[in-house]
Write a structure and sequence with these properties.
0% strand; MetI-like fold; 285 residues; 73% helix
């Protein structure tokens, strides 16, 4: 009986003894601090752009000094004729080239991700080269190509063809990765339920690869909208938004550039949030 009592008292004493938790080391702050510092570093130019879209400058060209808050430049968004026409050109080329590049890139990604055929390895290599080659090399080579085609003058058409060309490999890589990770048994199950290959593709495969197609389209749209190097080679007298902004830097940018940049940034954020919401609803469905 005494042995049992002694063991019981020992267990109670151990339970009442203070628990020594290991001290938290200061190194645990390194990763969070580094992460937030990088986010601030990357987002700071965007914040400055948004701030200076409200800058009440005394003239029509922005200065480093912040003079005060005003909504004048937002109200006079289309007050610069050349800037407005350049932005319209970019907003016509970007979605159209992204749509064509997404269509072709999706079919190419489907072929590379699903089928085996002669020439598959060289095709993958060409896609890699198209992504890795410097833009200045690609732009100069495209200029040399278009010069040899006299019935295609430098301008809107050459910009469109160039943007489609350099966007296709990015879409193909994204869609190919999606196809390679796709469960083929889902399509086999659909065909076991008497669905034709076409019906199985549109009812099963297409919804599964839709996020990759949307990602490829958005990436192509952004690449086309902000491209300067390649467009500068093949644009001729046509001006897109990046080319106009580059030319205006010699005499000073009007504040409307910051306003349009803020609107484009907001549109990108909205598209990203909408994509996340759609993916979340798909996951919950």
């Amino acid at each position: 009986m005494s042995a049992v009592a002694t063991e019981t008292r020992g267990a109670v004493a151990r339970s009442e003894a203070p628990i020594h938790r290991p001290r938290k080391r200061w190194t645990r702050f390194i990763l969070p601090v580094y992460t937030w510092a990088m986010i601030l570093y990357l987002a700071l130019p965007v914040f400055v752009m948004i701030l200076y879209s409200f800058n009440d400058i005394p003239g029509e060209r922005q200065t480093p000094k912040f003079w005060g808050f005003t909504l004048h430049w937002w109200q006079d968004l289309f007050g610069v004729a050349g800037l407005t026409s350049a932005l319209k050109t970019s907003l016509v080329i970007a979605p159209l080239s992204a749509l064509i590049a997404t269509t072709i890139g999706t079919l190419l990604g489907l072929a590379l991700g699903r089928y085996r055929f002669r020439g598959k390895a060289p095709t993958n290599f060409v896609i890699f080269i198209a992504i890795a080659v410097p833009e200045i090399v690609l732009g100069s080579s495209l200029l040399s190509l278009f010069i040899q085609v006299p019935f295609v003058p430098l301008g809107f058409t050459t910009i469109m063809l160039s943007h489609i060309g350099f966007s296709i490999p990015f879409v193909a890589v994204i869609v190919r990765a999606r196809f390679q990770g796709l469960d083929r048994s889902l399509e086999d199950a659909a065909q076991d339920l008497f669905a034709s290959p076409v019906v199985a593709f549109f009812k099963v495969t297409l919804p599964l690869i839709a996020p990759a197609i949307l990602s490829g389209f958005l990436l192509s749209f952004v690449l086309s909208l902000d491209d300067f190097v390649i467009t500068n080679f093949v644009s001729g007298t046509t001006q897109t938004f990046p080319i106009w902004v580059y030319g205006a830097t010699r005499i000073g940018l009007p504040p409307q550039v910051n306003v349009m940049g803020t609107l484009l940034f907001s549109a990108g954020i909205f598209a990203a949030v909408a994509n996340i919401v759609v993916q979340h609803r798909r996951a919950r469905a």
